Amino acid sequence: MKTVFGAVLAAAIILAVPAGASLAADTTVGGLTISNPWARASTGGSRPGVAYLTIVNTGGADSLTRASSPVAGRVELHRIIHDGGRARMGRIGKIPLPEGKSVALGPGGLHIMLMGLKRQLKEGETFPLSLYFAGAGKVDVMVRIMGAGATGDH
Description:
Structural class: mainly beta
Shape: globular
Distance between the termini: 36 Å
Order of helices and strands: HEEEEEEEEEEE
CATH superfamily: PCu(A)C copper chaperone
Radius of gyration: 17 Å
CATH topology: Immunoglobulin-like
CATH architecture: Sandwich
């Protein structure tokens, strides 16, 4: 009886999640919580990929110092600067994570560039991403690949 109830409950939970919703759990280490890691599907060719996520810091000040992934030859922290109606992208050495604040990496702002992709990023798949923090150390997350035009509102 317990097995049947458990199976029915699991099916109900799965069916209650809207199609396309992120099923990835938040990852917490110390006072940092990494949520909703996602990337856009790549369009092929030599174009780089981009990963996004949100980091909530309920502990002491920290910073994201670098990232790595087996799907890319090189991974860099980047930001987009809007200057006089123009947007330019540039590599940065770290992303500060102030105590008690949330830092969103998303389209048009801070992001993680995946240079020299070793495979195409296909919608519906996932890939591992390692994040390195000055205080919290290394944290591994799984990144969900969304459609090529995704904006993060999923």
